[in-house]
Amino acid sequence: PSGQYDCDMLVLGAGPGGYSAAFRAADLGMKTILVERYASLGGVCLNVGCIPSKALLHVAAVMDEVSHMDTLGITFGKPQVDLDKLRAHKTKVVGKLTGGLAAMAKMRKVTIVRGYGSFVDPHTIEVEETTGTGQDKTGTKKKISFRNCIIAAGSQAVRLPFMPDDPRVVDSTGALELRGQPKKMLILGGGIIGLEMGTVYSTLGARLDVVEMLDGLMQGADRDLVRVWQKMNTPRFDNIMLKTKTVGAEATKDGILVKFEGEQAPKEPQLYDLVLQAVGRSPNGKKIGAEKAGVTVSDRGFIPVDIQMRTNVPHIFAIGDIVGQPMLAHKAVHEAHVAAEAAMGEKSAFNARVIPSVAYTDPEVAWVGLTEDQAKAQGIAIKKGHFPWTASGRAIANTRDEGFTKLLFDAETHRILGGGIVGTHAGDMIGEVALAIEMGADEIDIGKTIHPHPTLGESIGMAAEIAHGTCTDVPPARK
Amino acid sequence: PSGQYDCDMLVLGAGPGGYSAAFRAADLGMKTILVERYASLGGVCLNVGCIPSKALLHVAAVMDEVSHMDTLGITFGKPQVDLDKLRAHKTKVVGKLTGGLAAMAKMRKVTIVRGYGSFVDPHTIEVEETTGTGQDKTGTKKKISFRNCIIAAGSQAVRLPFMPDDPRVVDSTGALELRGQPKKMLILGGGIIGLEMGTVYSTLGARLDVVEMLDGLMQGADRDLVRVWQKMNTPRFDNIMLKTKTVGAEATKDGILVKFEGEQAPKEPQLYDLVLQAVGRSPNGKKIGAEKAGVTVSDRGFIPVDIQMRTNVPHIFAIGDIVGQPMLAHKAVHEAHVAAEAAMGEKSAFNARVIPSVAYTDPEVAWVGLTEDQAKAQGIAIKKGHFPWTASGRAIANTRDEGFTKLLFDAETHRILGGGIVGTHAGDMIGEVALAIEMGADEIDIGKTIHPHPTLGESIGMAAEIAHGTCTDVPPARK
Amino acid sequence: KPIASPAVRNRAWELGIELQFVHGSGPAGRITHEDLDVYLASRGQPGAVGA
Ligand SMILES: Cc1cc2nc3c(=O)[nH]c(=O)nc-3n(C[C@H](O)[C@H](O)[C@H](O)COP(=O)(O)OP(=O)(O)OC[C@H]3O[C@@H](n4cnc5c(N)ncnc54)[C@H](O)[C@@H]3O)c2cc1C
Ligand SMILES: Cc1cc2nc3c(=O)[nH]c(=O)nc-3n(C[C@H](O)[C@H](O)[C@H](O)COP(=O)(O)OP(=O)(O)OC[C@H]3O[C@@H](n4cnc5c(N)ncnc54)[C@H](O)[C@@H]3O)c2cc1C
Q: CA gyration radius for chain C?
């Protein structure tokens, strides 16, 4: 049915957004072409993001766990780390998933075109063929015409202009390469990505410094959640520098010498074996010739879209990191399905109420929907159910009772508006809170749902009972 | 307001049912007395059940995890096990929780009376004081009168009559005492409790045999879930004897010599260092003089109750293991709240649709609501969403992708009826499936709820998408 | 804000129904699929949605 075009659907970029869009389009019967500059599918998330970071974080979590086991009666020897083998493990994990994607693309008859794509007009893209493990161009170019297009070209790590070009200065991709075991590491930016990588390196032996311009780490999460993480993680850090900027850096024989300015800046420049730039990601909107297709791109490189993920050009859609915050894989996937269905003429729309966030640190920090900070700022009256894991049998049995689960309810309707969990496996449980919000559940709905004992998951039921005033696993509410 | 009685509410037994009932009653303003024969509150669950078993299972899980870490590049020495220290850890975990209960009882002004209680008439119980760590009677007796009563006297492990009285023959309580590291252990009964304890002992070095009269282990769970557990756990067992009975046992110098009969019975009697009786639990209904209060007790010792947990005597309620299956702590707690509220004159009723079950083995097995076996037996047309964890990035990153998540939907209304998860942390995630069932969610509700990536929890969203036909993380549905 | 589950919200959007005009018969006024059916029947033909 593609008629005058080479395909019904061209998807630009094969990250979680792009492959999901292409697969959905193919499943709906469209002749689909997926253009990707790199050799393997999966984009940032599978190749240099979500997945390799979690493979390493899992290993780090086990190592950290083991280091406390002697107090429980089990003593292990000091672990021997084989970096090559660890790296190979990470590569294998990534390979399993990207290999799976390639196989599924074939089953769906999605044609993969390797190369760098750039629009030449509203129905045509030019692809410059690339080769090898990077994006080296072969010089071959071809034009592909399409009836519909979904732009899923993602984002790139931001680099500070004054950072020296040196192997000891890396972004998250470089950090994931795990080239060595630095003794002293600086994390630029106190966001999730930097703190996750810091966790890995610190468990492997590095002392950490972190510098953040704002007045707290892990922005976006409520401070009470972050406080628990921070208390547990203070031993990893020599110096947490808030409201502080990096103003210069110099590569020396002994390390990277970094200068700071701001409230908590050390007077002297500091020396590091490894500097991780994790100051944010910028969208790739300006690198794909969008103007040739007539697609509007914002100054910062984002592509504005409507609730069906449609750009200003009706047959061109955009999804994922390139359309805006939050830059998260699960957002990209859900947007992808909407875009593919909308292109097919279905009335799909992106109308999820909430998108959860998770820091896969140790403990994990997960939150979804309204935060307490937002409630305060927006003057929304809330009722809180706060269940401390010191009252959770399972958390105590796991010797990890530092966490808590809190749910925020509308003070008037008692409907759940948001929630946060800090503690081990928080990320695996926040989905229930998201479902509760989407379903419009109230404190009784959640509290009267029987959660199995003893689990960490029952903390969600308990938090709802606390809000409702019926919990008997915590001290009585003061009257 | 207790008037002519010593209290408004007397609760018999301080297990999860009893303490929750007493605390709820006190929170509602009743003058409450809690009678318990043992020194510490918490009943079976906290002292010799849920909690100590999970404390040991956690340690076992870490040990098992570590044994695979060398393939990931981290090599630990062979672990040294200090049984005394491990036992002390378990005791400390239990002590934290039971100590917490005692403190909370005080805050709520719940009076604890230590002793063995037995009804003398519909408004009076006689308590024979007990002392020490067991239930030794001091000889002192006192009568306590009550306006309302909640019976929460729980259950007891069933003992096979022909089992010799020998320290090498234990029930779950004995097994939790961790007196040694047997080389060869027999588990009588293939239920959750036996398999959990077997997991602990096998990780500590025992080879396992299990004997079960029925044709499969972990009855109640769908076979596809159990199959995954069994495949992972086969290495722990020398012999899984199904459709087989134990017909005799003899204590010898070299061990307990056990004779079997049935389909998979070995011809010769087998010798074991430790025999765990885990063939079920029987309710304590016949041991409390219920007839004196006029309370009906079934032949098997259960106390029949209505939806408000009321026995045939209107001011006497019963909850927990003593009222019937499933014998689970979370059921007891929810029933407790209902009973206390009903006694207070509130219109509460136990109307949860589903009660989840979890085997805290490795991997965990969790299920809730309708099973596939039940659907088949009852002729209910279902639509299944089955998400294999081989497609889960997080499971692969954790090197634990053997699991799966399945959801069962009504074929016509698309509402969720049940679900099962096998895999690490399954128990922490099954609560979301329970909430979905209680809320009457359908496949779109769950699938369109954005779950964070990469988590094990997102497998629930994926399974719903698969049922709906919109998942792009698995191969396309065959047409 | 009217309460409705994702499936009900999606269907309402596809049908061009504004949920604030629909009576919710579920617990706490939750709008169900059946409520959408009733609304549709009373309103007649579903209208188109401006994208
Ligand atoms: C270290 C790290 C950890 C992260 N962890 C998580 C996490 O745990 N959870 C989470 O939700 N998110 C995480 N993220 C964010 C997540 O990776 C992104 O949100 C997600 O990858 C966005 O998907 P996307 O499809 O929009 O874009 P991308 O994944 O960026 O994919 C875009 C694709 O398009 C290709 N491309 C771009 N331009 C062109 C062109 N002109 N021609 C051809 N191909 C092109 C790129 O090569 C790339 O493959 C993490 C990110 C990083 C860096
Ligand atoms: C090894 C093991 C592991 C388990 N694991 C789990 C699990 O992980 N999750 C789960 O949900 N369930 C689990 N269970 C089951 C769980 O322990 C029970 O369902 C739960 O304890 C029942 O609570 P209850 O309040 O009804 O009774 P119980 O916990 O049995 O408490 C009854 C209390 O009443 C007291 N009592 C009895 N008669 C008298 C009397 N006449 N006078 C004074 N006091 C009296 C007893 O001493 C006891 O303290 C496990 C059980 C075992 C044995």
A: 10
Contact in structure between A137 and A130 (CB atoms under 8 Å): yes
**Beta-carbon separation of A438 and C5 below 8 A:** yes
Q: Is B117 in the pocket of ligand 2 (CB under 6 A)?
A: yes
Q: Is B415 helix (H, G, I), strand (E, B) or coil?
A: strand
Round to whole Å and give the CA distance between B325 and B319: 11
Inspect the interface and report whether the beta carbons of A352 and C14 lie closer than 8 Å.
Answer: no
The residue count of chain A comes to 479
CA distance A282 to A276: 17
Separation of CA B155 and ligand 2 centre (Å): 6
Closest residue by Cα to residue A152 from A330, A6, A7, A10: A10
Say if residues C40 and C46 touch (Cβ distance below 8 Å).
yes
Biggest CA–CA distance in chain B, Å, is: 76
Residue-wise pLDDT tens digits, B268-286: 999 999 999 999 999 999 9
Alpha carbon distance C18, C32 (integer Å): 14
Residue to mutate, B11, B45, B118, B171, ligand 2, most ligand atoms under 8 Å from C-beta: B45
Q: Which amino acid is at A333?
A: V
Strands of the sheet containing B416-423, edge to edge, are: B357-359, B364-369, B416-423, B404-410, B382-388
Q: What residues form DSSP beta bridges with A151?
A: A12, A318
Q: Do A328 and B453 touch (CB under 8 A)?
A: yes
Residue B257 has pLDDT above 50, yes or no: yes
Work out the pLDDT band at C27, boundaries 50, 70, 90: confident
Q: Determine the residue of chain A that is closest to B398 in CA distance.
A: A58
User: Is the pTM value of this prediction over 0.90?
Assistant: yes
Q: Which of C3, C28, C49 sits opposite A347 (nearest CB)?
A: C49
What per-residue confidence (pLDDT) applies to A1? Answer: 47
Q: Residue C2's pLDDT is what?
A: 82
Q: Is residue A352 within 8 Å of residue A439, measured between CB atoms?
A: no
C10 touching A (Cβ < 8 Å)? yes
Indicate if B453 belongs to the active site: yes
Residue pair B208/B237 in contact (Cβ under 8 Å)? The answer is yes
Name the helix (H) or strand (E) containing A287.
none
State residue B238 phi and psi, 5-degree precision.
Answer: -85, -35
Closest-CA residue of chain A to B455: A428
- What is the per-residue pLDDT for A420? 98
Contact partners, residue A379, CB within 8 Å, separation at least 6: none
Whether the CB of A349 is below 8 Å from some CB of chain C: the reply is: yes
**At C30, which amino acid appears?**
R
Contact C51 A351 (CB under 8 A): no
With 90 as the cut, is the pLDDT of residue B459 above it? yes
Rounded CA gap, B89 and B56, in Å?
A: 9
pLDDT of residue A479: 62
Q: Which ligand is nearest to the CA of B39?
A: 2
Distance separating alpha carbons of residues B161 and B164, to the nearest angstrom: 8
Number of the ligand closest to the Cα of B278: 2
Integer Cα distance of A232 and A249 in angstroms? 30
pLDDT for C44 equals 55
Buried b (16+ CB within 10 A) or exposed e, C3-42: bbbbbbbbbbbebebebeebebebeeebbbbebbeebeee
Residue with CA closest to ligand 1 atom 37: A153
CA distance A288 to chain C (A): 26
pLDDT, tens digit (0-9, with 9 covering 90-100), for B400-418: 999 999 999 999 999 999 9
Query: What mean pLDDT is predicted for residues B197-218?
Result: 98
- Reported as a single tens digit per residue, the pLDDT across B38-96 is 999 999 999 999 999 999 999 999 999 999 999 999 999 999 999 999 999 999 999 99
Terminal alpha carbon distance of chain A: 70
In the numeric block, which tokens belong to residue A51? 């997945």
Neighbours of chain C (3+ CB pairs under 8 A): A, B
Q: Please give the ipTM for the structure prediction.
A: 0.97
